[in-house]
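DM from R.C. (forwarded with permission)

"hey, sorry to bug you on a friday — could you get me a structure for this? deadline for the figure draft is monday and I only need the backbone to look sensible"
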Amino acid sequence: MPDTASTLGAPAERREGPQKVTGTARYAAEHTPEGCAYAWPVPATVARGAVSAVDATAALAVPGVVEVLTHLNAPRLGKPDDATLAVLQHARVPHRGWYVALVVADTLEAAREGAAAVQVTYAEEPHDVVLKADHPGAYVPEDSDGTSGEHVRGDAEDAFASAAARVDALYRVPPLHNHPMEPHAATAQWQDGRLTVHDSSQGATTVRDVLAGLFALPKEQITVVSEHVGGGFGSKGTPRPHVVLASMAARATGRPVKLALPRRQLAAVVGHRSPTLHRVRLGAEADGTLTSVIHEVTAHTSRVKEFVETATAATRVMYPSPHARTTQRVLPLDVPSPSWMRAPGEAPGMYALESAMDELAVTLGIDPVELRLRNDTQTEPDSSLPFSSRHLAECLREGARRFGWSERDPRPRSHADGPVLVGSGVAAATYPVIVSPSRASAHAYPDGSFVIRVNATDIGQGARTVLAQVAADVLGVPLDSVRADIGSSDLPAAPLAGGSCGTGSWGWAVHEACTRLAARLAGQRGQQLPPEGVGATADTAGEADADSGYSRHSFGAHFAEVGVDTVSGEVRVRRLLGVYAAGHILNSRTARSQFIGAMTMGLGMALTEGSTMDAAFGDFTEADLAAYHVPAHADVPAIEAHWIDEDDPHLNPMGSKGIGEIGIVGTAAAIGNAVHHATGLRLRELPLTPDRVLAGGI
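My reply, with the result:
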């Protein structure tokens, strides 16, 4: 690899890699200020009701316990926009797992023992936690951003009824949980009225702003540091109760306080992917041309706050038809608040749509790849805007070539390897291009070094490295001469790492700041820089968030080969292959890591990951990694990620699209379609566990 980034896209190694593998990279819970205390939360043990009494006597008697906070004595907070952050502010218990107390002690062990000793009495009330499509409490939410609600084009019902070929199918995706490797944690310290927090978060700027409102502080008196974050997948995309509790406890005790949430508690307090019930109806001509698309989804939300899993959004983007209707409904229940999880909306929505497309292909006797090609479009069906770039057809063709799709016998159960039936499937993928305003600075020093500063967050995607590459490319300097400072709210404000918008947003500001710096340096050519160097800043507000005359999306195609054991019912994925069209790829090494990581997460969604809401107790029964099965190395087969380089001038100065989430979109459908091809069984509820396969009559 050359020592410059003049060819943006070079496979530069992640800069923090050596720190992480040697253990010198410090995460939020690894900061231990002098005199640090430890906190352990007490979750509610009823599904709905109110706290009627708290007895902390036994907890305070535990050696080392210094404080027990409840709604009766906790510091008062300002009213948050996100009601899940109003912790220890009232007696209400909106769902099981809601925090009702916090024990602070000299040691972690004492805090945990003290939490177990807190006696809480409840006034319990009847609860409802069961999601049903016909539940009378379900409603169509207000569509404030064009991603939910109901959207109608033509007369979809009549067109479906008169279509030459029809598919009418129900699909179900269970609750899913993010489970990052690093649990949610924060270390908070107050000094002279100033709050400093090390937080495991995908966006330190947002955490700072929220804490400022809760504690009635100027933003300048708060510093939030998220230097290294061990994954988040959306669950750390907004502030969570742990950072509020740690800050509250530090204020109440006058000591630094560290709080790392136990993994078994995460499902109730940091969000989850809402379960979704889908009904998809597709009508088509005999040649496969779609004439009607109807996609109806019901998802649950909590009674604390409304969160909508926008599972119909992708359906309005993918395939043209003169008649269409998408309806998104949400049902408030006595459940923990759902929230962002990798590719929210698109992941479950495209599972249902792409499964239905496979069913239509089988009904018509048309090759599944060919059916998608016949329904390709260069104009977004819902908005009629032209796509800034859409190379879905190229992804499908290139994926089919690499996968060897032409050798596939289309007949189900046509390939057996002993007792194992072998099949292959395909699905398309899409994810929107999201860009938000960001600020950044760039500085040049007399010794030939450069520093860029932006409050980006590296959650494992390689932000430090890629942003340094963007800067080096603009400045025309060796990559090793550029340092990237990220992960602190004291740096220029930036949006969170989420929605696949990080690099596009931060990189735009870095590109602009470096362009301005390069112009300053050109004006000083031949002159010695002053000792303090020279710098430039950028703020992309008004540019990055400007309206576009184009529909901007990434696209891709997934191919899967599975083996289904006819004796045990076990499904093993033998091959996964993805081809993506996501603008210019800025670092081929980190991009491949993002793609295959998301594809692996899609494999988990298809085969192993699933949660159950216990109707009687009102909590998730799969609350840890022993019960909730995240794919391990042994579950990941031969896996390939490829891409088509797109030259799209309607995105940002780098011509890049987000890549962190499109890899999970469509993977589960490709695997499910492969299971059908292998066995002839059409299983419409995830995950495809052995019991469901055997119950299908394999």
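R.C.: lifesaver. The CA atoms of residues 181 and 230 lie 6 Å apart.
me: no worries. Residues 502-523 form the longest helix (22 residues).
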